[in-house]
């Protein structure tokens, strides 16, 4: 679920932090910049793990801050570090809580990450959506007939990660196609999550934990 990712970046240390240990100041600045942010095709950044390479600091004339030398894509190496990132591998089994249900499927949260969906075709089958209750229901077949097992909000659910989607949400300049204010408003409303996981519960042992307690 969590991986260590090697990264490079430039860190600016403001002058009021000069009295602190350099590594502490750098860690604080990196966490301000990256913690709880999604890096495209990398995952959700959690916290700094360690700094692997740090060169001497220097001060730009006229700039009251320290810049640490490291590696930039275009020129010199500045700062190398490892960051803890949430990025489950495909087929990994996770446990979360049902946040809500809709026609699109079951929406799951694992506390610090909410953009998880289990689409209808990946539920235990046969399944139906109860419009009145706004929940998905597994029509569990037994010798006595079908029993409706409801997937209620707040229930713990075990699922398999089967796919992931990254969306580049970097800011872009205005496009010529956006000729009107209404078009711009629609774009804001259609804002997508930068990182989404797709899950599945369509196999024995997966689904609500309460379903398998007595199995």
Structural summary, described in words:
- The protein is mostly beta strands and 215 residues long.
- The protein has two domains: 2-86, Dna Ligase, domain 1 (2-Layer Sandwich), CATH 3.30.1490; 92-168 and 188-211, Nucleic acid-binding proteins (OB fold (Dihydrolipoamide Acetyltransferase, E2P)).
- 10% of the residues lie in helices and 44% in strands.
- A five-stranded mixed β-barrel has the order 8-9-10-15-14. A four-stranded antiparallel β-sheet has the order 1-7-4-3.
- A hairpin with a 6-residue loop joins strand 9 and strand 10.
- The chain is elongated, with a radius of gyration of 23 Å.
- 20% of the residues are buried.
- Residues 70-77 have low confidence and may be disordered.
- Residues 92-212 form the RNA polymerase III subunit Rpc25 domain.
- GO terms for molecular function: DNA binding; DNA-directed RNA polymerase activity.
- InterPro entries: NA-bd_OB-fold, RNA_pol_III_Rbc25, RNA_pol_Rpb7-like_N_sf, RNAP_E/RPC8, Rpb7-like, Rpb7-like_N.
């Amino acid at each position: 679920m969590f991986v260590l990712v090697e990264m490079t970046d430039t860190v600016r240390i403001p002058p009021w932090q000069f009295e602190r240990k350099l590594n502490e100041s750098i860690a604080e600045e990196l966490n301000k910049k990256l913690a709880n942010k999604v890096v495209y095709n990398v995952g959700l950044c959690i916290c700094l793990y360690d700094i692997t390479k740090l060169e001497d600091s220097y001060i730009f004339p006229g700039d009251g801050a320290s810049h640490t030398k490291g590696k930039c894509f275009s020129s010199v190496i500045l700062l190398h570090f490892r960051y803890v990132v949430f990025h489950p591998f495909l087929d990994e089994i996770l446990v979360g809580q049902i946040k809500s249900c809709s026609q699109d499927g079951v929406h799951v949260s694992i506390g610090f990450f909410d953009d998880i969906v289990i689409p209808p075709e990946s539920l235990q089958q046969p399944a139906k959506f109860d419009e009145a209750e706004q929940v998905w229901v597994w029509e569990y077949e037994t010798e006595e007939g079908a029993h409706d097992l409801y997937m209620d909000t707040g229930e713990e659910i075990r699922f398999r990660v089967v796919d992931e989607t990254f969306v580049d949400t970097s800011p872009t300049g205005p496009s010529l196609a956006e000729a009107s204010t209404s078009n711009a408003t629609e774009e804001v409303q259609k804002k997508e999550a930068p990182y989404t996981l797709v899950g599945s519960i369509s196999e024995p042992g997966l689904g609500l934990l309460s379903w398998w307690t007595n199995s």
